[in-house]
Amino acid sequence: MDAYNLKDYEAALNECRPLADQGNADAQYSVGVLYANGWGVPQDYGQARHWYEKAAAQGHAKAQHSLGALYEFGEGVLQNYGQARHWYEKAAAQGNVNAQVALGALYDNGWGVPRNNEQARHWYEKAAAQEHPLAQFILGTLYGNGQGVPQDYGQAWHWWEKAAVQGHAKAQHNLGWLYASGQGAPQDYGQARHWWEKAAAQGLVDAQFNLGVQYYHGQDVPQDYGQARHWWEAAAAQGHAKAQRNLGWLYFSGQGVPQDYEQARHWYEKAAVLGLADAQFNLGVLYRTGQGVPQDYEQARRWWEKAAAQGHVKAQHNLGILHDKGSGVIRDFVQAHKWYNLAGAHGLKDAAAQRDTVAKQMTHAQIAEAQRLAREWRPTTQ
Q1: Distances 163 to 47, 130, 150, 183, 188 between C-alpha atoms, Å
Q2: Residue 258: which region, alpha, beta or left (left: phi > 0; alpha: psi -120 to 50)?
Q3: Which of 151, 249, 258, 283 is deepest in the core (most CB within 10 A)?
């Protein structure tokens, strides 16, 4: 099957098909792969299943795994987790590592079987013992989260390191987190940076964000706002809301870049649209002060309401001020009292004092209504 290995797929089909017709299981599997991927032929999951079934019936482990995958994802067949498990079990029993991982996932998620953490771990461990990086990463995650096992950061570190040295980006990121937090290993920002750099080079957005944080704060590296901006820009381009907010802060404060309120608004707005409460609050501040935008109390109120709804204490306080003073809204002591009360309840001393001041201008009925609104308030997510 030289043509197949050389990726000359049309020649591979011509080479494999006669052998497949003669009952050669390897050739049958290879023809199935060609149809499944549309290599040298139009993609046809039905034909892929036909040839996988022939090879699987002869005990071909890779074909059994591939047939299971067709049933799991409903490609060329009706989705059927029971059939997926049936074929995965046959392949896994022969040591097929991909089938072992797939079986682990079925038990992990309760797909077609009762959810069973012990069975999931059993199959992940078998695959991990064969140095499968995804299985090693998942095992590390089970131990890191205490899912089906006692939480054990040492075991998490053990498995994430095995996956990380094989280039698994999420394992590299998580290993960096263990070193940064001192969980399961002595705190070591240098090692954290080492692993985050590897993950960031593969485009992992959380690692890019974390590197930016390291350079911004100078954690085991010289403080470098330029490098912080570099990594936050990489993460922000992938839609990382906190990186977008942090870029906004760099431009607002002029750290590592010329101060630029319009750029600050640009980045705050991107993060605010994604629902990040801090960015919504900061955007409201720009509209309140007219920095980078025309002063607009209504827009300030709009963004502070979004942040306040998520429990942002400063946004709640500022809404209290708007309603108290009638800035951009009709003056409303009930709303002012409610927002001051909520902010004060979360430790903002000025807000508690302002609540008491505004209460002196309210009737008993208004105070009772404001207290009721505060009691019934619940945070929301966006």
Answers
A1: 35, 11, 21, 18, 20
A2: beta
A3: 283
End-to-end CA distance of the chain: 54
Q: Report if residue 342 sits inside a domain.
A: yes
Domain residue limits at 375: 331-382
pLDDT at 5 exceeding the cut of 80: no
Say yes or no to pLDDT of 3 above 70. no
**Position 365 in a domain:** yes
Read off the pLDDT of residues 75-96 as tens digits, 9 standing for 90 and up.
999 999 999 999 999 999 999 9
* Structural domain includes residue 324: no
